[in-house]
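Example S7 (structure tokens).
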């Protein structure tokens, strides 16, 4: 068995019997490796069940379930989905076909000890960061709708329409999410560019980016309130919250990049972000909902009220439980959207970032 093949982020070296992803080796037992090599070498052509039995199991009598389990495992290791395949397509009652573009390589590439990385460019990582910003904006849009409708459901002062409340909160939440995502995403992109891969350093990159942006936004925001209104509300979202959420997003994208599917990776990232968001209020911090409630309470003439959210959890105002629950939702939404957008961009770039 010989040959060297590349498809998307994977390199299959038949001579050394090794399959590698850009993040490192992919574990396959000998028989499953033979099955993948057969599929890849016949790229675009149907491989019948009989050929699998002859060339992979070599005449050893097995049931069709053995082949089904083999294909299921290959798909899981490649991050493929049977309902919307990128690599292995099922031809019902006949066999399987490898549908991804395969590049046959004359000479195996020289692999770094930690991972096989295609050529990378700073432009790819900028695009990766921009995708994260888009994901953050989407999270801000969803969160803004939530807080906007909650604010608009309160009794409003004369001359203030529900649409105005919704638009103001929506715009504010999107802006904050975009700024936060910019710091976190660029921190992750710089870390992955400098190390050549998405790995543990992305946690530090995301945390540092969130810390810097959070500190800057809080300083600017407090100065603006002092200048315009003569006083500032105090502990709104800032460096601490940016550090925790940024680190959570960095951890989330590291976990998600090693997941079999984009959906499962995004869910994992959302869970990490949700835990971080729930812990922040318990540690004395405030995310967007808590900051909005603080602003409303600090300025007696404020028309902003989020009491309807607190009532859902049996609290008269935006209390500790409400802050933890909304913090978990904010963290999950922000982390899930940023990570999903960055992973989609990474996939479109062919794994170069």
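Recovered sequence:
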């Amino acid at each position: 068995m010989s040959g060297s093949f590349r498809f998307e982020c994977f390199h299959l070296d038949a001579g050394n019997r090794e399959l590698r992803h850009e993040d490192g080796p992919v574990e396959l037992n000998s028989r499953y490796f033979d099955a993948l090599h057969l599929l890849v070498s016949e790229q675009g052509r149907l491989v019948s069940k009989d050929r699998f039995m002859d060339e992979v199991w070599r005449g050893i009598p097995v049931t069709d379930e053995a082949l089904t389990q083999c294909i299921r495992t290959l798909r899981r290791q490649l991050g493929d989905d049977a309902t919307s395949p990128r690599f292995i397509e099922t031809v019902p009652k006949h066999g399987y076909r490898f549908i991804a573009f395969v590049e046959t390589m004359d000479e195996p590439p020289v692999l770094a000890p930690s991972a096989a990385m295609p050529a990378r460019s700073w432009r790819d990582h900028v695009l990766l960061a921009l995708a994260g910003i888009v994901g953050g904006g989407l999270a801000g849009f969803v969160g803004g709708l939530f807080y906007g409708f909650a604010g608009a459901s309160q009794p409003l002062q004369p001359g203030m329409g529900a649409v105005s409340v919704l638009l103001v909160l929506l715009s504010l939440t999107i802006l904050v999410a975009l700024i936060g995502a910019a710091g976190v995403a660029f921190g992750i992109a710089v870390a992955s560019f400098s190390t050549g891969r998405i790995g543990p350093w992305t946690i530090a990159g995301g945390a540092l980016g969130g810390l810097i942006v959070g500190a800057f936004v809080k300083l600017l925001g407090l100065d603006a309130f002092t200048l315009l209104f003569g006083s500032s509300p105090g502990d709104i979202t800032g460096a601490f919250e940016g550090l925790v959420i940024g680190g959570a997003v960095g951890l989330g994208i590291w976990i998600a990049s090693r997941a079999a599917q984009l959906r499962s990776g995004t869910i994992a990232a959302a869970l990490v972000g949700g835990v971080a968001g729930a812990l922040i209020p318990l540690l004395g911090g405030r995310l967007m909902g808590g900051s909005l409630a603080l602003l409303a309470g600090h300025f007696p003439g404020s028309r902003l009220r989020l009491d309807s959210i607190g009532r859902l959890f049996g609290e008269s105002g935006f209390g500790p439980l409400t802050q933890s629950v909304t913090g978990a939702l904010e963290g999950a939404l922000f982390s899930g959207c940023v990570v999903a957008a960055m992973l989609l961009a990474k996939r479109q770039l062919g794994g170069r970032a």
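Notes on this example. Confidence is low (pLDDT under 50) at residues 108-119.
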